[in-house]
Amino acid sequence: MQLNSHSFRVRYAETDQMGVVYHGNYAQYLEMGRVEWLRALGITYKSMEDSGVMLPVISLHIDYKKSALYDDLLTVETRLKSRPMVKIAFEYKVVNEAGELLATGHTVLAFMDKNTGKPIKCPDYILEKLED
């Protein structure tokens, strides 16, 4: 399915005293990958929320392979796992500039009506973008 890559540099505040990225920051890295995956389709989280659609994470899994370090240039590769319905699932790879695999992950998010808090099907405008 559709793949998007997003690169960024590790900031000092994301590391411990040894210059190693704190493991909890990887959830934010995956979020950055998701946001940029949607943006590449021409959709922003803000526009979805403004139209009444929320997309909370309902499942997150990360496998750590190798440490990322301060000032490393990282790339998050984000891939849609399957055609979205009420849920949307993504798979991720985090690699460094040398192409070394640092982490893999997957998330599942649910489409929710902002006003009712109830699950809804994936909006048609997203499905249409996936067919392009």
UniProtKB/TrEMBL annotation:
InterPro entries: 4-hydroxybenzoyl-CoA_TE, HB-CoA_thioesterase_AS, HotDog_dom_sf, YbgC/YbaW. One of its GO terms (molecular function) is fatty acyl-CoA hydrolase activity. The keyword Hydrolase applies. Keywords: Hydrolase. Pfam families: 4HBT_2. Belongs to the 4-hydroxybenzoyl-CoA thioesterase family. PANTHER family: 4-HYDROXYBENZOYL-COA THIOESTERASE FAMILY MEMBER, NOVEL THIOESTERASE SUPERFAMILY DOMAIN AND SAPOSIN A-TYPE DOMAIN CONTAINING PROTEIN (0610012H03RIK). This is Acyl-CoA thioester hydrolase. It comes from Flagellimonas taeanensis.
